Structure formats: structure tokens, C-alpha cells
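Students often ask why inverse folding is considered easier than folding. One informal answer: many sequences map to the same fold, so there is more than one right answer. In these notes we will look at a single instance of the problem. The structure comes first.
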């Protein structure tokens, strides 16, 4: 498919994408920072394939949105729709390392057996109190407000725990009316609270020392390497788009800080 999008800030072409509200809110709230498009080659702005039987093929479309601002190195969202049952939003906002800011991460995934919801302000330096003290108290209260209204997502793998904050919102919710209500009544306002918390941090952040920024950068690179190596969507993307395209997309578009 030839994409009609010329840069990463232009509107998506996916129709009836389940998670559109969340990206729309992100775009709206970042508009105050005078964003510019994050450079993404056209082949990765929009990708289309088909799956299923030859008699009844189903289309899968993946689009990538992105921006950068004075304080944000890269905000990007991978948006996938594959038939009626599979829908994905993988949103990561990466600050410049000259600010002591966490990552913003939202992974919302619809699969045939339910929705997976992951939402967090993820620290680059989890055990560094200077890096975490400004947002942790507020984030914990936001997490407590919303996690109590959702079913648990289950255990987090031990190696992954260092990349999540104590405010990690994690849930598995069912398909159908119950899940739709939870998304509308709980996930939407929870997302808004997490995003507003992150925006407040951006507005109030000050430049840090060169020595400090080098430490933050090391933490950011470690986080990106982990995300690229362990990306759970790798198998699905390979099945839809092939190994070479997928590896370039994961390592050079989604998690490109090497």
C-alpha cells in the first residue's frame, strides 16, 4: 500500500481503530509544545498486509505516528488493526536526556481472549531518588485510584520489574460489554491522569548537568535495548510483515536509541 501520509504527524488512515481516543488525546495535549514530525521513513509510516485464508483474506494495517519537541526526543505510537479482534496501541514518549524525566509508556492490546492494558511513567534510573522523587508520590496516588477498579494483569516477569515504576497500571480485561465499559469508564480517565502527570513534569523540568545527563542517557539506552530485545509483538509483526522489515522497525523506529 502506498501511504498518503508524508510525515509522522499527519492523521492516521486506519478506520475504526479501537484505541483512537488515546492517541487523539496525546496529540491534542502535545499541541501546546509546538511539535514537529519525528523523522520516519515512508515505508514505516504505513504498512499493509493480509492474513487468513485465500478465500477470505483479512487486512492488517500498521501506522506509525511520531513527534518531537524542545524537551521530547521522540514520542511515537505504533497503531495496528488486524481484522475485528486484534488491535494494538504501543505508545512510548522519550524525553531528551538533558532533563530528569521518565518515559511515558502505554501498551493497549486487543487479542481474541481479551484486552491487555499497561500504563506507566517508566524511570530511566529506577533506584535513583533524584530521578524518581518528583513524580513518584503523585503517580502512586493516581495508580491507587484506578488499579483498584481493575482486575490484575498477573505477575510481572522478574527481569522486567526494574523497568516499571511502583505506579505501573497493569490489567487484563474481557472482551465484550464489560471490557468496553472498563475502557470507557476507567481506562480513559486513568490514561488522562497519567498523561497529565507527565505533562506537568515536562513543563516544570529544568536542564541538568552534563554529568547527570550522561547518567540518564545510559539508563535510557538500557531501557531501549531491553524493550527492543524483548518486544512481545515481534512474532506477530514477523508473521504479518516478514523478519527483515520487523527487525528494522523494532530496532530503528520503535526503540531507536542505541
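Output (designed amino acids):
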Amino acid at each position: 500500500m502506498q501511504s498518503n501520509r508524508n510525515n509522522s504527524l499527519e492523521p492516521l488512515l486506519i478506520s475504526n481503530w479501537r484505541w483512537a481516543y488515546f492517541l487523539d488525546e496525546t496529540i491534542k495535549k502535545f499541541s501546546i509544545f509546538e511539535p514537529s514530525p519525528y523523522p520516519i521513513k515512508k515505508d514505516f509510516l504505513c504498512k499493509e498486509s493480509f492474513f487468513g485464508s485465500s478465500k477470505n483474506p483479512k487486512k492488517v494495517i500498521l501506522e506509525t505516528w511520531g513527534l518531537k519537541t524542545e524537551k521530547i526526543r521522540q514520542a511515537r505510537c505504533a497503531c495496528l488493526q488486524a481484522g475485528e479482534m486484534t488491535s494494538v496501541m504501543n505508545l512510548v514518549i522519550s524525553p531528551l536526556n538533558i532533563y530528569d524525566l521518565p518515559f511515558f509508556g502505554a501498551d493497549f492490546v486487543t487479542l481474541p481472549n481479551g484486552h491487555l492494558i499497561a500504563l506507566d511513567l517508566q524511570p530511566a534510573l529506577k533506584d535513583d531518588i533524584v530521578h524518581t522523587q518528583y513524580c513518584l508520590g503523585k503517580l502512586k496516588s493516581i495508580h491507587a485510584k484506578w488499579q483498584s477498579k481493575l482486575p490484575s494483569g498477573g505477575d510481572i516477569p522478574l527481569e522486567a520489574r526494574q523497568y516499571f515504576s511502583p505506579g505501573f497500571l497493569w490489567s487484563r480485561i474481557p472482551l465484550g460489554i464489560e471490557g468496553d465499559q472498563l475502557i470507557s469508564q476507567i481506562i480513559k480517565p486513568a490514561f488522562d491522569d497519567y498523561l497529565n502527570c507527565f505533562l506537568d513534569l515536562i513543563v516544570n523540568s529544568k536542564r541538568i548537568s552534563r554529568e547527570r545527563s550522561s547518567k540518564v542517557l545510559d539508563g535510557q539506552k538500557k531501557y531501549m535495548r531491553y524493550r527492543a530485545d524483548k518486544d512481545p509483538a515481534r512474532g506477530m509483526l514477523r508473521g504479518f510483515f516478514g523478519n527483515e522489515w520487523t527487525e528494522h522497525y523494532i530496532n530503528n523506529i520503535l526503540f531507536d536509541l542505541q
